[in-house]
Amino acid sequence: MNEVNLTFRRYKDDDDAHVRWNQDVIQSGESDLCPTYIHRTPPCQGSCPSGHDVRGWLSIVRGLDKPPEGMRWEEYAFQRMTEANPFPAIMGRVCPAPCQDGCNRNEVENHVGINSVEQYIGDWARENNLTFPKPEKETGKKVAIVGGGPAGLAAAYFLRRRGHSCTIFESYNTVGGMMCFGIPGYRIPRDVLDHEVNRILDMGGIEVKTNTRVGTDVTIEQLEKEYDAIFWGVGATSGKALPITGAEAPNCVDGMAFLRAFNEGRLQHLSGRILVIGGGDTAMDVAAVARRIGHISQIHEKDRPENVILGQTVHDVVSAARRKGADVWLVYRRPISKAPATKHELEAIISEGVEIHESLAPLEVVLGEDGRAKALKVVPVDWSSGKMVVKEGEEFEIECSMIVGATGQKGDYTGIEEMDNGKGLIDTNRSYQVKSKPGHFVGGDAVKPHLLTTAIGHAAIAVKSMDSHLNSKEIPDIPKVNVHHFSLLQELQDHSMGPEDYDHEQIWGTNESNFAVHNYEDRSPSEIISCDKLFLGHFEHEPINLRQEVKITSEEVLSNFKERFLGLTEEKAVAEANRCMSCGMCFECNNCVLYCPQTAVFRVKKDKHVMGRYVDTDYNKCVGCYICRDVCPTGYIHMGLL
Ligand SMILES: Cc1cc2nc3c(=O)[nH]c(=O)nc-3n(C[C@H](O)[C@H](O)[C@H](O)COP(=O)(O)OP(=O)(O)OC[C@H]3O[C@@H](n4cnc5c(N)ncnc54)[C@H](O)[C@@H]3O)c2cc1C
Ligand code: SF4
Ligand code: SF4
Fold it and tell me: Looking at domain 43-130+541-579, what is its CATH homologous superfamily?
């Protein structure tokens, strides 16, 4: 975080020499370039894998972009948000928010708290029972969706928005995928999950077939025969076995199976020291759950945790009453600062009492006489040269009762082998069509395990491509910046101010005509606005409005399944949205109007005013002095009009 305010000076001494004479055509203090208004994509949006119109919904929250009459701003923001992603309350809670890493406000003091505002809107929508509209007309096309995780559910949602119906085939007994059997309930509360899933299913036209596995219960040929297209959202739900000898021991399990047993309520406690191997999200969740469920020192053979994880038995709740804090170690091959897990989750497990043992490479699972793992043999490694250098001769053993490997995932392609690219994933092109399989589309972890928002972003693009396929049209090229863009034309039309129809007759002097949006260029599909195009000195330091977080210590963690993030209040959500610098879009600060020495820049009349159309320039008065461009904090003004 920057501790000092930025200077309000845009230029340093002697910066006034013009180096681009061909662009800045200065003659006697005048140039022949005048301001034009350029809409670009902000980096928050460019970094959000589902391409959220973040700046757009923050503008609604802060009251700049007004809802249509009779609608609450929260509902308007919810509508804008869910154009890109139908799970705002879930995203607001567990998305690691790459948008915030990309946010230009990081250059001032700290990013905008984007996902806390997202959570606020998501929770408001749930409390107020907002629904998704049903499609205006049905197309009669039917799509088979294989897998009811976030990718499959999002595909169903985007298909319904276009009037296509679908059937979700889900091998598990409920839809939700990792949101239900991977990520623990204290991170995604199950009432929040159920609500956001049901809101999609309530759109109608979505048939759900649970306990139905494609490849076992249904064949690909059947789907091809009965449906107009197929979307593969099968995820990567199987954990990879540790690639070392002894890893076949019964008490050496994978993180996916561990979390599934916990989420199904079968696994109630552990016993002895647990070693978690890995540094990703799965490793964090396993370690955090292990600390929460604790351990019991004396257990019956049948109650051994591995028997429960492997599905041979179920813990009873009575024995859980004897739980104590579990001894949980996280063993990671690299320095822990390089772990891919969300930083926040890593900090949480450390404060909850998980011991971190970094730069240790597992060598072998040491087996006892009973064939069970009794220790993990590791060797310290040095990464200072950038490569892993083993410290020969320093090997040692870490005693343990159970090893949980969380070092990667892959899909199960039994019966659907033709989809497997050999690495447990499905090959795709940029439009999310399955390579060499017309009519087949794919998204989510089946392409590459990543995040919920990524799976949803894939589904949105795949459905766009599918829509062309279903309408026998060519699948369009993917734009460079492929996100859900704000459309000034749409905004004008929504407020009944859209341009008139163009009669295609030749006319002269078009500046007074109303069949076009004047002096405006939409570069959002091709350009992301970087912080050097903004006037950052305009922005004062304002601390981020953080959500209240319940910090759980190692003494409090046992049996603690409470949510950690408490949502923002309305007042704080609005204050946070106000921190947004509106990169690449006018936010009505009036600087250009106030500073223009020619009074050439003016506010448009109220009946012509919408978001993005607040100021205009009288080109008869403009002398091309650049002042409006220099004082525009958002980089919306470009000197370009000749
Ligand atoms: C432990 C863990 C924690 C995570 N934490 C986060 C987090 O905090 N934030 C975040 O953004 N992301 C997180 N992720 C990543 C995120 O969960 C995934 O990226 C996301 O769930 C992928 O969605 P998906 O729909 O592609 O796959 P999945 O969620 O895996 O869903 C696939 C679905 O397909 C079904 N299926 C599979 N094969 C078949 C078949 N042949 N027939 C029928 N159905 C089938 C499965 O049962 C499953 O329901 C985490 C992942 C894990 C494992
Ligand atoms: S889904 Fe994630 S990346 Fe996208 S806006 Fe929300 S928090 Fe940011
Ligand atoms: S300041 Fe606002 S528009 Fe700019 S990157 Fe951050 S959230 Fe996006």
Answer: Alpha-helical ferredoxin (1.10.1060.10)
Please check whether residue 390 is in contact with residue 335, taking contact to mean a CB–CB distance below 8 angstroms. no
Backbone angles phi, psi at 270, to 5 degrees: -120, -170
Which CATH number does 142-237+411-470 carry?
3.50.50.60
What are the tens digits of pLDDT across the range 328-357? 999 999 999 999 999 999 999 999 999 999
Q: Where are the alpha helices (DSSP H) in 294-360?
A: 305-309, 317-320, 343-351
Answer whether 555's CB lies under 8 Å from 542's CB.
no
C-alpha of residue 152 to centroid of ligand 2, in Å: 19
- Domain at 241-408, CATH class: alpha beta
Q: Does 19 have pLDDT greater than 70?
A: no
Residues near ligand 2 with C-beta < 6 Å? 48, 50, 52, 54, 85, 91, 95, 97-99, 114-115, 118, 453
**Would you list the DSSP string of 521-575?**
EE-TTT-B--GGGS-GGGPPP----PPEE----TTT-TT----SEEPPPHHHHHH
Q: How many A from CA of 592 to the centre of ligand 3? A: 20
Gyration radius of the chain's alpha carbons: 28
Q: At 529, phi and psi to the nearest 5?
A: -85, 125
Q: Which atom of ligand 1 is nearest to the CA of 169?
A: 43
Identify the nearest ligand to the CA of 111 by its number: 3
- Mutation test of ligand 2: which of 41, 54, 121, 344 has the most ligand atoms closer than 8 Å to its C-beta? 54
